[in-house]
Write a structure and sequence with these properties.
- The N terminus is likely disordered.
- The protein is an all-alpha fold.
- The longest helix has 51 residues.
- The protein contains 10 helices and no strands.
- It folds into 2 domains: 64 residues, no CATH class; 150 residues, Up-down Bundle (Multidrug efflux transporter AcrB transmembrane fold).
């Protein structure tokens, strides 16, 4: 409350003691305001002088630095030189990517330019890029061996090359559709999204084996789909939703992993429920012929 406000308030009061106390309080407020104003002005003046001196000194240092055509190593602080210069006298060169390393159109030329300067470089980007190149180079061999092992296990279960080939249709076509969809969406593989491949191998072969086993047991495609189609649909949808939630991540690799997995699961599901029953009806009519019931 200011002294003016206190004076106006005391004028409306009729008690003499209250008026006297208000007057004394008003005098105290006036004295404090006067002292504070003088002290504040002095402190502000002192701070102004310090600020002016600091600005002037900084400006002079900038002038001296701008007079040099280049910065010599001797001008660097010793602590900084220790971090940047090795015992053999060689200097550490720090290179930072100016673009998005997840973008292949930027990453590949950037790594080529870096390799043309020196092969002796390390860093998170270079390690990630080399790992991706090695992974892509080894992928055909690894995928071929995996497909061979999966085919052998399914054949042991079904005991028929034709049945095994039909059961693997959702896996094979599902992966082909996934890669084709990624090409349409301009979604290349990276170190994280490549993890979706083994996941899709397991999901795709599960769907095919379950549907084929049910058809073989029921000898009736509509009945087989009615009994096994719903579980396959439910498990595939819940798995796709679970991995699809990764697309909410701001991390590009995790986002791509969720998208590739969701696309792949949806592709395998469509082949399992729509195409596989038709192929069984065309190429494996024997499985639809009911066998004589045992007594």
């Amino acid at each position: 409350m200011s002294a003016l406000q206190l004076s106006m308030l005391s004028a409306t009061l009729y008690d003499d003691d209250v008026r006297q106390a208000a007057g004394e309080l008003r005098d105290v407020i006036n004295r404090v305001d006067a002292r504070t104003s003088v002290a504040s002005a002095g402190r502000l003046s002192y701070l102004d002088r310090l600020l002016a001196q600091e600005i002037h000194g900084t400006f002079e240092r900038f002038q001296r630095m701008s007079g040099n055509t280049s910065l010599t190593p001797e001008q660097l602080p010793q602590g900084l030189r220790t971090q940047l210069q090795g015992a053999d006298g060689r200097w550490l060169v720090v290179v930072r990517a100016a673009g998005d390393i997840w973008d292949r159109e930027f990453r590949d030329p950037f790594m080529q330019d870096l390799g043309s300067i020196s092969s002796d470089y390390v860093g998170a980007i270079s390690a990630w890029h080399r790992g991706l190149v090695l992974l892509v180079a080894e992928l055909p061999k690894v995928f071929g061996l995996t497909a061979l092992v999966v085919f052998g296990l399914v054949w042991i279960d079904l005991r028929s090359l034709r049945a095994t080939a039909l059961a693997m249709v959702p896996l094979v076509l599902g992966l082909i559709w996934t890669v084709g969809t990624m090409a349409v969406l301009d979604l290349p593989f990276n170190m994280l999204s490549i993890i979706a491949i083994p996941l899709l191998v397991g999901i795709g072969i599960d769907n095919g084996v379950h549907i084929y086993h049910r058809v073989r047991k029921e000898h009736d495609i509509p009945l087989a789909l009615a009994r096994s189609g719903k579980p396959v649909l439910l498990t595939s949808m819940t798995t796709a939703i679970g991995f699809g939630s990764l697309m909410l991540s701001v991390h590009p690799g995790i986002h791509d992993l969720g998208m590739v997995t969701a696309i792949g699961i949806a592709s395998c599901l469509c082949v399992s429920l729509l195409l596989l029953p038709a192929l069984v009806a065309i190429f494996d009519e024997d499985v639809l012929a009911p066998k004589d019931e045992e007594p």
